[in-house]
Amino acid sequence: MKLEDEVKTFIVQALACFDPPSAVVKAVKEEFDLAVSPQQVESYDPNKRAGRNLSDEYRQIFTATRETFLRDTAAIGVSHRAVRLRTLQRLAERAEKMGNVALVASLLEQVARECGDAFTNKRQTEVSGKDGQPLLAGGIAVTFVDGPGRPS
């Protein structure tokens, strides 16, 4: 089935935002009342083998949408630790009122992991000096913190 340009653009933009083909199939059905297959959707992803013949026009749309999406994730509330912690607090309070001890414990574990940088790309590397003593720089103990893409 030949798709209209509006539908093709919709599919390309959804894929550029990391939506899986199955979700795009549902979205196309809801938005345009069209039935498309996951294989048909994959043919609009230039990063997949099925999308190797995608036109330059749709490749450019994909690239521009992907760049915008990645740049604008800061506008998504749950991408911020404070928002996630507040949400977890509300959920824990609600679960506690309901007497759901297992859920409260699970939520508290999640909070502890959030606070302990379990969901970041940072890791702390301890470096020690002679005989396990702290490494000193100008008389101050040194700890190295790695970020994404930086060697420890």
From TrEMBL:
Origin: domain of life: Bacteria
- One Pfam family it belongs to: DUF2280
Query: What is the name of this protein?
Result: DUF2280 domain-containing protein
